[in-house]
Amino acid sequence: MFENALVIGKFYPPHAGHRHLIETAAAGARSVWVLVQGSRFESLTAQQRADWLAEEFAAVGNVTVIAVRNDCPEDFFSDEIWMAQLENMRLALKMRGVESIDVLFSSESYGERLAQAFTAVHISVDPRRSAYPVSGTMCRENLATAWPLLVPAARRGMAVRIIVVGAESTGTTTLSEALSAHYRRRFPQLHDVVEYGRQFTYEKLAARQASAPQTRVEDLVWTAADFGLIAERQTQLEQAAAEASPLVIADTDALATTLWERYYLGEGSYGSFAAVGQLPRRDIYLLTDHNGVDFEDDGWREGEHRRAEMTEWFKESLVEAGHSWILLTGSHERRMATATAVIDAMLAQQAAFTSPGWAGRTSLAATE
């Protein structure tokens, strides 16, 4: 068992091969130091990648992940550049109190030379990528295909999240279902993130009718705990969808749940507010306007008279929280056109990994 192990990399983005590398190191050393090196020229920051890896290994007590800013060029034939890179690593470790490294775990060709520089043993881990046929290059070149191979925290962090919200009978479900159908052709694994509050209402009514068959939906008594559970479960559904697909289209979320809690229980009820504090990163909210949309009473709705008020609540809450949002008006076709235009732009941005000119590529074919 070694004392201090070192793992370095870009982890751009973190994937199953990286996890295997760090797991191997964690099994062979008392302390594993993972240096995540990221430059200003890359579209994911070093801190983002480090946070995802730290979350992945949170339950492993001997792994420490460190984000390292490194804008130095890469040139394995330059002794001067090599020294600059080594000093960047050494100081990152020194500032954490690590003065010596016993072993370097690596899958790269430079591993032996780097280990020698640290006067450490080199252990090569799956250099041919046969155990996990994935590389950062492969992920960046075809993110949708590689999505299942990213570590779950990276998937949750990188997914484009589209949240559809609105007052009763303003077309939120119609829009979210149409968007899901449209993008499922591109992302077959895209999940439906349905309104859990409606499912909860069905279950609550069925449970009440088991002892009182005449109970109607308007007879149900709501509590702050109900809304807390709904908000928590809504976020869980959204997170599961992010792990499955690079695109999430959610029909409501925990923030919307706080407004419905306010609607039913008044200003003094805060059962769902804790879940809002744990909201994942949002890309955009699509707010469906009530104007020009006929109210359809499906037997589960309160009425048309408060739609304008609710729409205003949504606008105020989204602005107060600093979220990006678009008010969707007009016909369903017009709303779809607006929504798909912004989603397409966001997906293009998601897939556009940037790298400096000196960055190398890992070809799996070349390692076989």
Explain this structure to me?
The protein is of the alpha/beta class. The chain folds into 2 domains: 2-152, HUPs (Rossmann fold, 3-Layer(aba) Sandwich); 159-351, 3-Layer(aba) Sandwich (Rossmann fold). 44% of the residues lie in helices and 15% in strands. The strands form 2 sheets. It has a 5-stranded parallel sheet with strand order 3-2-1-4-5, sandwiched between helices. Strand 2 (29-38), helix 2 (46-56) and strand 3 form a beta-alpha-beta unit. The radius of gyration is 25 Å and the shape is elongated. The mean pLDDT is 93.
Helices and strands, with pairings:
Layout: E1 2-9, H1 16-28, E2 29-38, H2 46-56, E3 63-69, H3 79-94, E4 103-106, H4 111-117, E5 121-124, H5 136-141, H6 143-146, H7 152-158, E6 160-166, H8 172-184, H9 196-209, H10 224-244, E7 247-251, H11 254-265, H12 273-276, E8 284-288, H13 307-321, E9 325-328, H14 332-351
Parallel strand pairs: 1-2, 1-4, 2-3, 4-5, 6-7, 6-8, 8-9
Mean pLDDT: 93
Q: How would you classify the helix and strand content by structural class?
A: alpha/beta
Number of strands: 9
CATH architecture of the largest domain: 3-Layer(aba) Sandwich
Radius of gyration: 25 Å
Tally of individual domains: 2
CATH topology (fold) name of the largest domain? Rossmann fold
Within CATH, the superfamily of the largest domain carries the name: P-loop containing nucleotide triphosphate hydrolases
CA-to-CA gap between the ends? 30 Å
- Runs with pLDDT <50, length 5+? none
Report on the biggest sheet.
5 strands, parallel
